Structure formats: structure tokens, C-alpha cells
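Q: Got a minute? One more chain.
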Amino acid sequence: MRDDPTLDLRAAAVGAIAWSAAFVTLTWSPRWVVGLLAVAGLTVLRRRHDPAVLTTRAAWWLVAAAVALSAYLHLTHVTGSPVARLAEEVSSVQVVATVATTPVDSPGRFADRVHFEATVSEVSSRGRHLRARAPVLVLMDAGGTVVERGARVRLSGMLRPSDRPERAGVLTVRGDAVLLAGPGRVQRGSERVRQAIRDAVAGQPVGPRTLVPALVDGDDADLPDQVAADFQVAGLTHLQAVSGTNLTLIVGALLLLARWVGVRARALIAVGGLGVVGFILLAGPEPSVLRAAAMGTVALTGLGSGARRQGIRALGVAVLVLLLIDPWLARSWGFALSVTATAGILLLVPPWREALGRWLPRWGAEAAAVPLAAQLACTPLVAALSGQVSLVAVFANVLAAPLVAPATVLGLLGGLVALVWVPLGAVVAAPAAWSAAGIIAIAEHAAGLPVPALGWSTGVGPLLVLGGLCAALVLALRAVLARAGATLGLVGVLVLVILVPVPTPGWPPPGWVLVACAVGQGDAVVLNAGAGSAVVVDAGPDAAVVDDCLSRLRVEAVPVLVLTHFHADHVDGIGGVADGRTVGRILTSPTEDPASGAAVVRDVADRLGARAVAVTAGATVQVGRVTAEVLAPTGERFADSVSPPNDASVVLLVEIAGVRVLLTGDQERPSQAALRRSYPGLRADVLKVAHHGSSKQDEDLVRGLGARVGLISVGADNDYGHPAGVTLDLLGRAGIQVRRTDLDGDVAVVLDGRGRLGTVTRGTGR
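A: Always. Here it is, folded:
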């Protein structure tokens, strides 16, 4: 910044150049990368520079070349491996692999699953046995052999392509894992400490006993969904995963203890280094942990007295080293957020702390400046990722800050004591659990405020506007923060906005016809009937999520709710549709299978006093500007059906403002073929792709519709492989523009002022 004459941003430029080189190499053709490096090199050599300038430019070029080469080698190592080739062929394989991440439980429709990252060292298929080192994602049934991070296992199953370039494939395991070797001593020791932390808080309520391990070492696998949702709205998600905050607190406490016992100078640096290594071993040497360790170390370096310049230099070097080790970080949202937050803290906290220090004590000035700087720096990225701008994040972080340190440090200390004697460890960790309960209460109350966040479009234009607003705030805030009256007035305005609901800018977009809500692995489609009313087709798996989507759309009445079939991912959220809204008729499939889903619908219908009516082909719906005809089910039974409830889905042909929409529920291939035969001239502008984009699509039906937009309602990282690559290829060949809720969040189909069809996304993928 200009007010700091010692500030040197050349090291920061090194980080930015390294990041750009890695991103371009992993995203574009290698020929483009070579061409750009050649042009840059010639520019450096041909232009006349001062020797010092020439040295700097040459160093930057070498950084770009080194990172680009590293990224290219990583890319070719994955894509050129035998494992990747077998995945492209969708092969049945047997592999020997090392478990790279802690296995995570995930509920499936028919059975619970476990997923984890693994590194394959041997692969056998079709009589061939190969040695090949490649990363894969493993999906296997829960309840079998318990595998731990660091274990060496033999797995058999089907290897398919991955939609993420850093993986060679996705292995769906058949049968059980065969344990060849357990984790090494270091990993076993790390797991013992992690388990001891869990044991120390095992007697606490579910929220605190799951949050304390998350604060200490990022172990958030058991954190309740509602707590995680509240943390997201309140801007506290960085607390539930491994972040620089964890390391800063743990190593900071270790350094304070070392100073107290008389450690000084280089020995103190050694203690800090040992603390960083210990943190990495505790949380596991995964990319996110290495990133957190680097950013936490940078923060410790840069927030000391007079260490701002060193912190910025350390940040540039840390980014370079991390990208040389793992170029895939250049494509990671988590890495972008972590680096941006650290940069914001280093650049903005010192002047803001000084300004606030004119009327606040130093500890209060720093407590306010750190979350404000991190949040403001990250706001455009968070909006691009989540489709919203949190209004309560700074307040929530300021209130939570005094509780984070005792929850983290005492949680770790309690775990270490529990290694010797669990009851004493529980006593030590009790204040950590109480602090965690306070953090959860802050998140719950912040998320429950009338306007905890503003929805924000993820389009390029709105994000540029938001970036400009944040830049303007950065320039203006120092003068504001130096005056108590101006600061308190600004806080008062923000509190008023939070407590008084205001229209959400940019959402719903003008001219919206329908919205596919991002409800995870499930369906919920909202058809705009006008005047605050809508026809809702399916309710998704989570009541709170579908309620939020309808609230953002300002839907107050649902004259007709259509539930295409009774699977949980279509009906379990029905309570959220009804929350605070009037619901008229409920139309359902005549096939009440599974019975549990039908019971959920009956219970809610009885509570609402609404009529639930089974419909078949020929029924019609007219609500406001929404006209719909039921095309299926017809009552036909399909002998080759793999899922009769899916093939009995209610199928709607909808017309809104001249736009024709085909909603196909979870139809499988037999019922889609029957639909095509029954309606040979069927046409639609928009297709809600059947069954979350599964591979079971009737190609003739899809190609013959003439649709321009295809909506796929699907959950991120689901264990069904949805959407299937063959389906995406089919839609592409048919000229259908695909929008996916896992990547795009809420997707709105809109008509502009000239009647042209388009889509607007909100970027809250799940």
C-alpha cells in the first residue's frame, strides 16, 4: 500500500505468476503455454532494462516456466497413466492402493457408502498386471472391512472416468477390501491422538463433541448438517475445516508456552517449526492441510510487530512452493480463499488496526480488523462460489473469536491427556466443549436473523460490480474506522439491513420462468405462476434447503405441489415447501413405492389439510400462467424396469409464457421409450433431464425434442456417478445447453425483454 514505503510486492508477484502458470497449464493446451512463455521470454530479452529490473523479470519468467513444467508433468502423470486408460474403457479391475485420506461415510439411496482418495500402485485387468502410480476416488459399501488413512489395501471393482482432472478415475468397489498392511507408525500415532480428542469430548452434546475435533484437526465428518448449514450462512465455515486459523492458534499457544519456560531466539523458531510439523502430522499430510499450514505460518510471520513486509514476501514464496508441490491447487476454491484471506489480513489489518486503535484498545482493534479484512478480501470469491454475500460474517467472527482459541487449544490438550487417562482428558476438554457450544449458538442465531445474507448473481457482470464495491470500501474504510462516530454509524446501518428484510439484488432474475433449486442429490423445480405463487414439482431431500430456495424466489403460495414419485430425494423436503406457505392440491404418482415416502407425504398432507391425489396421463393443471399436461404414467408396466417407482414418475409437459418444458422425474429408459412412442411429435424448449442425468436415457427421445436447455438436478460428488459422461455427450450432440445444480447452484430459465430464452445461475451448488 502507498502509505508503507517499505512494502515490496515483487514477492507477491511471484506468487501471482506461479498461480497463473499452473492454472493456464492445467486448463489450456500445452502449445498455448509454450507460446506464452516464448513470447514472455522474448519480451524480457528484447526490451532494455536496468540490470536489477532485468534480473527480476528473468526470475519471474523462470518461476512461470518451472511451475508450468511441474503442472505439465503432474497432468501427464495422471492422464497418461494406465489407470486413466483403463478408466476411459470402464474396466473391471483389481488394484493395490494406499488410502490417502480419511474415509468418509455418505448416505446412499439403497445403502450407506464410504468414499476416500487413494493412490494406486498396482492394477490388474483383462489378464494384464501393471505397476502404475495414480490417484483415484474410491467408493465402497459401508459396513465391511474398516480402512484407515495410510493403510495398503487390495480392491476389486469397476473403474470409470473421473470428472476431475487430478484423478485418474473413480473406482466403485465390489465386495470387501482386503487389508494388506496397516498405517505406518506416524499415521497410527496421529490417529491415536485424533481418537483421543474424540474420546475426551465423547460425553458432550452432539454439536460440541463433533465441532471440537473439527476445530483442532479438521475432523468434521460427524458434524450435523444443520450446524454446517448455519456455519455457512454465518461465515464460519473456515472453523469446521483445516485452515490457517487452526495452526495459528495451536502453534501460537506452543510459542507462548515456550517463551514462558525461557526459550528464546533460534530455539523459539525451532519450536515453531516443530509445531507446524506436528500439526501436519496430526491433521494428515493432505493438500488442504499443507495449504493451511503454509497460510497459518505466513499469518504468524506477517502479523508480528513490523513484520508486514516479511509476511507478504512469505506469502509469495509459500504460494510458489505449494504450486510446485501440488499444481492442482491452482484450480482449488479452498486455496484461492485461503490465499486471498491471508493477503487481506497482511495488507489491510495493520492500517485498520492503527485506525481503530485511536479509540479502541489494541486487542479490540485487532479482533475487529482481522475478520473484517479477511471477509472483505474474500467477498467476491465467496459470492462466486455460494451466490450470496454474508452480512453477519464479521459480527459472527468477532463474537466467536474469543471462543475459538480455548475450544482449539484445550481440545487438543484434552486429547493429549486422554491418551494417558480419558476421564482426566474429559475434564480438561470440557471448557473446549463449552466454547464450541457457544460458537454453535452464535452461528445458529446469526443464520436465523431475517437477512443474514444477500443473494448475489454469479454472472461476470455482477461479480465485477461486487469487486468494485469491495475495492471502494478498502479505500474508504481506513478513514471511517479512525472515527468512532462514523464506525458506529456504519455498524448501525448494517445492523438495520440485517434485521429488516430487503429485496435480494439479482435474484430472482427478471423474467424468470422456472428455477431448478440446488437441493443436493434430488429434484425441486419451481414454475413461476405469477403474483408470488408457483407450481412446485418435487421437494428435494431437505426441508430447510427447499424452503430457502422458495424464500429467495419470494414464493408465498403453492397452489399445486407435484411429487413425481416417492423416493426420499423427491419427497422428504415437503415440509419445507409448506413452511409459512399455503399449499393447495398435492399430485402424486399412483405407485406408492417406497411406502416410507408415501407415509411422509400423507403425514404432511394431513397436517396441512391438503388433498393428495394420484394422477395419470391426461390430467391437466392450470395455475396462473402455468399450464401443464400429465403425459405419464399411463399404468403400463415394464418387464425390464430396474426401478418401477422411477418408471412410474409423473411426467409433465408445461407451458409458461410460450416456453415449453418437459419434466421427466426419474424416468428410466423403458418409460422414456414408451413416452417417445406415445407422443411421436413431442417438442420442448427446456428438458429437465431424467434421473439426475443417469446413463439410462432414451437417445431418440432426447434428440427429437429440439430442446435448447437441459437442466440436471444433481448433488455434488454423489456416489451414483450422476451425471453420466455418456449423457453429457448425448446432450452435447443434441445441441442442448446443459446447466447442473451441483456446479451452477440454483438455475433459472429466463425470457429477456425480446422474448429470448436464456439461463441465469446463482452458484450455490451442493
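A: The chain has a mean pLDDT of 84.
Q: Perfect, thanks.
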